Amino acid sequence: MTVLYALVGAAIVGCAIFMILSRNLVRMLLGLSLLATGANLLLFIAGRIRTDQAPIIKEGAKVLEDAADPVVQALILTAIVIGFALTIIMGVLVLRAWRTQATVDARKLESAEAMGAARARDGADE
How far apart are CA 22 and CA 29, in angstroms? Predict the structure, then answer.
């Protein structure tokens, strides 16, 4: 079953890389979100998915014998929050590009400096 999860994670990462290499900004945004999901899944697989043992140290024992690693789970939770924040920031940038340039094609976008200079020039005229 772990091999199946690893193959699914690899397929998700492969689809994400394909989407990131697109010239469409929306596809790039979705590809980055998909890449974060694939990385989280692969981290989760590396940290052992489940165990039959309860997370309680037996009487007389000094350590827990065989259980899921809570550090990996904490890392995944942190990665989910960071990935969500990255998605929101990229979404705002895509929306800003759409509103100022009326396109989401990366090849047709002007440079950021030119957009800022045009905005300052338009603001000075008013």
Answer: 10
Q: What is the CATH topology of the domain spanning 2-51+69-125?
A: Helix Hairpins (1.10.287)
Measured between alpha carbons, how far is residue 12 from residues 2, 6, 19, 49, 125 in Å?
15, 10, 11, 18, 49
Alpha helix ranges (H) inside the chain: 2-20, 25-46, 70-101, 112-125
User: Taking the complete model, does pTM exceed 0.85, yes or no?
Assistant: no
Per-residue pLDDT tens digits of the chain, which is 126 residues long:
788 988 999 999 999 999 999 999 999 999 999 999 999 888 888 876 566 666 677 787 777 666 666 778 888 899 999 999 999 999 999 999 899 888 888 888 876 666 566 666 766 655
Residues in Cβ contact with 117 at an 8 Å cutoff, skipping those fewer than 6 apart: none
Q: Cα(27)–Cα(46) distance, rounded to whole angstroms?
A: 28
